[in-house]
């Protein structure tokens, strides 16, 4: 009994789909026919059929009229292009304002800049900045004696020194004399 209901529901759905598709097809055909009629009416109104006169003077007048018509159409086209550019610019400005109001900013690509702390403070505060930051003031003081003791320890344990003494012909001569 349940399967019969399902079959009936799917059959009804398919019937409704096909009916909707038929309606859509007829509506599309009506729209295309209406557009074609509208196009024919527009062409009949704005583009009268061309009748070529027989004499040369009439032909020249017709050419002059056509040139005047072309110029007016070009002026209209130019005006519409300028209006379009203005509206696109306004649209971009408004979208940018909207973006700004939302608070979602595009971050510009940042570049590394080498700048001292003084220069940074001067750039931020302007000419008001007169304090000189001495970054070395907070460093730990090292006693000279400590460095001399470490140097002595380094000299004793420095293997490079021994290698330099033994390298070359003089070093081999010393080794040979020491061996004898």
From TrEMBL:
Alphabetized InterPro entries for the sequence: Troponin, Troponin_I, Troponin_sf
Biological processes per GO annotation: cardiac muscle contraction; skeletal muscle contraction
Gene3D superfamilies linked: 1.20.5.350, 6.10.250.180
Keywords: Acetylation, Actin-binding, Coiled coil, Muscle protein
Coiled coil segments of this chain: 56-104
Keyword Nucleotide-binding: no
Function: Troponin I is the inhibitory subunit of troponin, the thin filament regulatory complex which confers calcium-sensitivity to striated muscle actomyosin ATPase activity.
Similarity-based family: Belongs to the troponin I family.
Self-association state and partner proteins as the record states: Binds to actin and tropomyosin.
The protein's name: Troponin I, fast skeletal muscle
């Amino acid at each position: 009994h349940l399967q019969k209901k399902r079959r009936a529901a799917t059959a009804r759905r398919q019937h409704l789909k096909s009916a909707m598709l038929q309606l859509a097809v007829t509506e599309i055909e009506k729209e295309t026919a209406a557009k074609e009629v509208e196009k024919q009416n527009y062409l009949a109104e704005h583009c009268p059929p061309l009748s070529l006169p027989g004499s040369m003077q009439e032909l020249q007048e017709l050419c002059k009229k056509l040139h005047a018509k072309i110029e007016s159409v070009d002026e209209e086209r130019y005006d519409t292009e300028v209006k379009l550019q203005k509206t696109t610019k306004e649209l971009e400005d408004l979208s940018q304002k909207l973006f700004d109001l939302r608070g979602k900013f595009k971050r510009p690509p940042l570049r590394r800049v080498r700048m001292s702390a003084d220069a940074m403070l001067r750039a931020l505060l302007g000419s008001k900045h007169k304090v000189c930051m001495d970054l070395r003031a907070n460093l730990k003081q090292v006693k000279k004696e400590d460095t001399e003791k470490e140097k002595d320890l380094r000299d004793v344990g420095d293997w490079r020194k021994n290698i330099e003494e033994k390298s070359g012909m003089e070093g081999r001569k010393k080794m040979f004399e020491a061996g004898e």
